[in-house]
Amino acid sequence: MAARAASGAHALACLRPVPNDRLEIRDDPAKGRGVFARQPIPGGTLIEAAPVIIVPAEQCPLLDRTILHDYYFQWDNFDRSGRGAVPLGLVALCNHSRRPNARVRRNLAQDTLDLVATAPIAAGDEVTIDYHCPLWFKPQD
Fold this sequence. Notes:
- The protein is mainly β.
- The protein contains 2 helices and 9 strands.
- The radius of gyration is 17 Å and the shape is globular.
């Protein structure tokens, strides 16, 4: 019993945020919080592999009645009939653009949402994605 407690304490002590020197969160007066490049990011770069919490399909309508509606992704199907995924990374704060410079790729093998640059992103530029769904707000671009 003591060995298990010590092992659990060691595991907790080892948990640290994964540093990402390439990104920062900033407030945009028009769009709110967003993700911005701190340094140039070449096209094709895996910017972030965000772990996710998989939400059973029958629980997704509950998420739709909370603030998490604006932050979760469809995991199985894009028609809102499958499971959802709540990302635990900066990808959740990427704003929408009709001309995005990144995309989100579901990594089913690793249970991550991978944020990938689709074009070079200059230092200071916002990292944006296309939400691929009916928007609940008026787009800025």
